[in-house]
Amino acid sequence: MIRAKLHKIKQELDHTQIDNIRQHIHDEFQKQTLSTVIGKGERVAIAVGSRGINQIAEIVKSVVDEVQKAGAKPFIVPSMGSHGGATAEGQKEILENYGISEEKVNAPIVSSMETAHLGETESGIPVCIDKNANEADHIIVINRIKPHTEFKGSIESGLMKMMVIGLGKHKGALNAHNYAVKFGYEKTLTEIGKHIIDNANITFGVGIVENGYGATHTLRAIKGSDIYQKEKQILNIAQKTCPKLPFKSFDILIVDECGKEISGTGMDTKVIGRIMNIYEDELQEPKITRIILRSLTKKTHGNAVGVGLADFVTKNVYENINFEMTYINCLTAVAPEKARLPIVCPNDVEALKAAIGTCGPVDEENIKIVWIKNTSKLSEMYISDGLVNTAKENTRIQFVGEPETITFDDDGNLSRHFFE
């Protein structure tokens, strides 16, 4: 049925990384003189989100250790907006799935959806923050800084977003996304974030950048009052390290899996070239005609946000969707588009047939196909014959092994050995 061959390629990405996380965090907080800022016996809320950050459990434990060395009393606050089904239990479970349990980090997890009202911004946007965090003497916000999946700006996804949407819980996340429709995402995040810095007890931020392979590239402790300016600088680093597909346009992208730990939108929109929301312009590159999604990750717990970014999904995807969790997330993000259900195909063969049949007048032997594990794993991928010449022109791409014919198992699914 499909005569194209697959070629395994590797692309060279930024591989700079921090080897000793604990020592690095200790050194960073020494620079910020944490022990002179946080006093003995004071309660410190450590805000942790729902992203699949590499070494996040070790990072959190290291921050807890530094706070305890100062004689203070740290506790973990899940800071993930509406994720986990917008329930306290669901959000605590997400943290535990990342290895962040009370036993492992040696600090209690205080999970609640209650918020405190912090007034309004100059544009009249209501601001709220996790009630338990607000009642603590200090808040330390931990998050990865990276390009946002919904917009471009001087600040995107990072500490400011964590304060606004993560610490805002379901209510704050809904407010922020609704006002983003009116004011745009960057203005809304910036205005609310600055208001929180001015009116809440944000003492430190811990900004993380990952390299092209997902390892920790940069890790900075930042004073709360400096978060806005410092985050802009760190975002510049992140934009240079984040992985991208090495092709500007092609016919079909096959994605093995999507999930919340991979991207806030399940699949990174900046990777696939589709934003699909009502308050930002669409991306121009890469231009991908059809996208096939094969599965959801276990860690996403059925949250299929981003499924609407695909054109075709398999029955395997559909049967694992938790619609309630997905809809809560997408409605809170004012992005119902991300929950739209594409055409459901019984297996990979039928999905690929449908994709090829809707690509326009393409030659099956020269069709341009890219197959990836997910949008955060882009050091290795498979490409079809139609992209080989383009790949050979890229000095950062290396071909691995011999080309293989696309094969399917008895159920009509692609052979799974490729990414195992």
Describe this structure in words.
The protein has 420 residues and is an alpha/beta fold. The protein folds into two domains: 5-13 and 244-419, no CATH class; 32-241, LarA, N-terminal domain (Rossmann fold, 3-Layer(aba) Sandwich). The protein has helices at residues 21-31, 34-37, 56-69, 88-97, 102-105, 131-135, 159-166, 169-183, 185-199, 227-241, 269-272, 315-319, 323-332, 348-357, 388-392, and strands at 5-11, 43-48, 73-78, 115-120, 126-130, 138-144, 202-210, 216-223, 249-255, 287-293, 312-314, 343-345, 369-372, 380-384, 397-405. The strands form three sheets. An eight-stranded mixed beta sheet has the order 12-11-10-9-13-14-1-15. The mean pLDDT is 93. This is LarA-like N-terminal domain-containing protein. Residues 12-180 form the LarA-like N-terminal domain. Pfam families: Lar_N. One of its GO terms (molecular function) is lactate racemase activity.
Total domain units: 2
Spell out the helices and strands N to C: EHHEHEHHEEHEHHHEEHEHEEHHEHEEHE
The tally of helices reads 15
Rg measurement, Å: 22 Å
What fraction strand? 15-25%
Number of extended strands: 15
CATH class of the largest domain: Alpha Beta
Distance between the termini: 25 Å
Share of helical residues: 25-40%
Give a quick account of the main beta sheet: strands, pairing sense, barrel closure. Answer: 8 strands, mixed
Mean model confidence by pLDDT: 93
CATH superfamily of the largest domain: LarA, N-terminal domain
Using the alpha-carbon principal axes, give the shape: globular
Oligomerization category of the chains in this entry = single chain
Q: Biggest sheet: strands side by side, in what order?
A: 12-11-10-9-13-14-1-15
List segments where confidence is low: pLDDT < 50 over at least 5 consecutive residues. none
The class by helix and strand makeup works out as alpha/beta
Level-2 CATH architecture of the largest domain: 3-Layer(aba) Sandwich
Examine the coordinates and then state which fold CATH places here, giving the name of the CATH topology of the largest domain: Rossmann fold
Protein name: LarA-like N-terminal domain-containing protein
Pfam families: Lar_N
GO molecular function: lactate racemase activity
Domain LarA-like N-terminal: 12-180
